[in-house]
Specification:
single chain, alpha+beta, Alpha-Beta Plaits, four-stranded antiparallel β-sheet
Length: 100
Amino acid sequence: MIIRIFRARVRPGQEADFRRRLADETARLRRTQPGLLALHAGRLVDSTENEIAIVSIWRDQETLRAFADQQRQDPVIVMDRDRFLEDIRVEQYEQWGERG
């Protein structure tokens, strides 16, 4: 399994609109994206920085590659990212500790 962590800060004044659009996008991805096992979004607790994280769990690198199309470090999940987000970071981890 591959764990993909997307982090960013929501631009001031864009929080409500971003949150609505993100809810729509994550619901669509949960229904339609092959190999996507889990998808969770949230904001940093006790912070005024408006930092968000989106954690997605993928069956394997092939299904992630099909989603991200060779651009696995790009934040493909968020529409209009330049309007809504700044300081974007994407990291991917291979799951440890499970026998399969």
